[in-house]
Amino acid sequence: MSQTRGKYDFCIGLVLAMSSSIFIGGSFILKKKGLLRLARKGSMRAGQGGHAYLKEWLWWAGLLSMGAGEVANFAAYAFAPATLVTPLGALSVLVSAILSSFFLNEKLNLHGKIGCLLSILGSTVMVIHAPQEEEVETLDEMSHKLGDPGFVVFATLVVIVSLILICVVGPRHGQTNILVYITICSVIGALSVSCVKGLGIAIKELFAGKPVLKHPLSWILLLSLTVCVSTQINYLNRALDIFNTSIVTPIYYVIFTTSVLTCSAILFKEWQHMAADDIIGTFSGFLTIIVGIFLLHAFKDVNFTLANLPLSLWKDDRAANGTLLSTYDSFNDDEESSSCIGEMQSTESLSARRNGNLSAF
């Protein structure tokens, strides 16, 4: 019965995580469509400090879609392991890229299409090999997990590293080094996911009729989540404001997901119940998603399609035969240029003789 219940919760968490990616990915398209419509009307743009988008229904539709996605993502942590839910967040990038090619006329080149395919394959592999059993069912169990010495050491290190980056490294190198602000919001994000996981369990107990609001851990998790999310938003916005979005997004995804997987391994110990092939499969799927996200973002401005592929292969073939071909071609070029010069000189001499110009001789 317990095993059947675990699989049922796993499926619910999987559906919630995937629906979250669809809602969040679609929200970017709706917001962008609303902002483009305002730009065509001549309204002051948001980047210039305008707030005309507040009167645009498409923008509000995008905001509601993002809210629905975040709620679904929040609920997914209550049913499925963080090892599964967090990496599936990459699907929102995939959904956004596909929808933008249809509704915003943003072309998806060959690298982007391969990146989308790799992201889907990586996500599928992770779903197949992700842990399907949940170890924490009540707030009392969560409290016991949070008091584990391994997690206490991990959380302490995260706080110390974050404070050093915020107070010492950030003011000096934050404007020039992309890893500073991204590392801050990524490592703190691991703690925020743990808080979300605990609050999800609290909500499940609340619906079961248990006195969750009297449990001090519920309020501690809520306060911690507020602080962590506020810090994440602050430093992620700083990184996006200074550096290119196509660089920030994949780096943030990799560091954030790695931090969450590390935190999950220490706190929930979901990896202890996984076979070796499942662990390898999970990491392989995660790395495949990373490659897909990288291809999707790093080469999005490169105009390369399947039509360019035969031409590139032909150039590669010529380069492979480089030395012989270049020598032969240069020899032929020299012969052709010599014959052309000789013909030109003989023509000029004949013309000069006809015109009686002795200087030609």
UniProtKB/TrEMBL annotation:
Gene this protein is translated from: NIPA2
An example Gene Ontology CC term for this record: early endosome
Family as reported in the entry's similarity comment: Belongs to the NIPA family.
Molecular function as annotated in GO: magnesium ion transmembrane transporter activity
Name the record gives this protein: NIPA magnesium transporter 2
Membrane topology: Multi-pass membrane protein
Pfam family, one: Mg_trans_NIPA
Record localization: Membrane
The organism's taxonomic lineage, starting at the top: Eukaryota, Metazoa, Chordata, Craniata, Vertebrata
Keyword Iron-sulfur: no
